[in-house]
Q: What sequence folds into this?
């Protein structure tokens, strides 16, 4: 089945830029979606179709996808961005169709 | 506004059955799929399966095929996830989520299921 690989954790100072990667074979050929999950809450879609933002998501959140790596970029990081972030793709060529990455814990120092 | 409201926490014993629910509102229920996602304590998100309420067509992850049943009652805009015989390893938070494409656009608040003797 298709595997998405994320760094388990990263830390960023307030005001800096966080880049969270999601690796997968030829992931650039798929649409990647990103979710933010704060402690004790349900996940929230923050980026869909590689680089689109749902209504209400700040412009500080952006996405890119090429080759074997997709990236979620959070600029001007705030304390409220501290959360787990998950990437997800739809893998039409497999019975494991909706695939999540293992998640990355973003700590804001 | 799309809303998914899930049923409350459950505490069950191994071997018992359980059905949890997810009520959708604010959109045309039969036109979009609803998926179920498991999150075990301290772990990541796992896709379990989806249902298209319009025709009740379901697709399960191979990891959950035969372990759970997903259903829907379009007359009351509610989707369900059920177990016939719970195991301790089913202890987890379960989320329903709504989608129009291949992303999970809107999520329920989660239902915590605890299975313990």
A:
């Amino acid at each position: 089945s298709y595997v998405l690989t994320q760094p388990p954790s990263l830390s960023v100072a307030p005001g800096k830029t966080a880049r969270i990667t999601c690796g997968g074979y030829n992931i650039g050929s798929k649409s990647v979606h990103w979710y933010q999950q704060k402690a004790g809450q349900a996940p929230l879609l923050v980026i869909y179709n590689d680089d689109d933002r749902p209504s209400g998501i700040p412009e500080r959140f952006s996405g890119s996808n090429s080759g074997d790596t997709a990236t979620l970029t959070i600029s001007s990081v705030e304390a409220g961005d501290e959360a787990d972030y998950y990437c997800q793709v739809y893998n039409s060529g497999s019975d494991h169709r909706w695939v999540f990455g293992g998640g990355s814990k973003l700590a804001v120092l | 506004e799309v809303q998914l409201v899930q049923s409350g926490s459950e505490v069950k014993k191994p071997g018992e059955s359980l059905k949890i629910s997810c009520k959708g509102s604010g959109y045309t229920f039969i036109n979009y799929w609803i998926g179920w996602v498991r999150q075990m304590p301290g772990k990541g998100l796992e896709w379990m399966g989806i249902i298209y309420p319009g025709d009740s067509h379901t697709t399960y992850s191979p990891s959950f095929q035969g372990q759970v049943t997903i259903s829907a009652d379009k007359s009351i805009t509610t989707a369900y996830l059920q177990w016939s015989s719970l195991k301790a390893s089913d202890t987890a938070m379960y989320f329903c989520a709504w989608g129009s494409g291949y992303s999970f656009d809107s999520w329920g608040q989660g239902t915590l299921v605890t299975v313990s003797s």
Observations:
- The longest strand of chain B covers residues 18-25.
- Chain B touches chain A through 23 residues (CB under 8 Å).
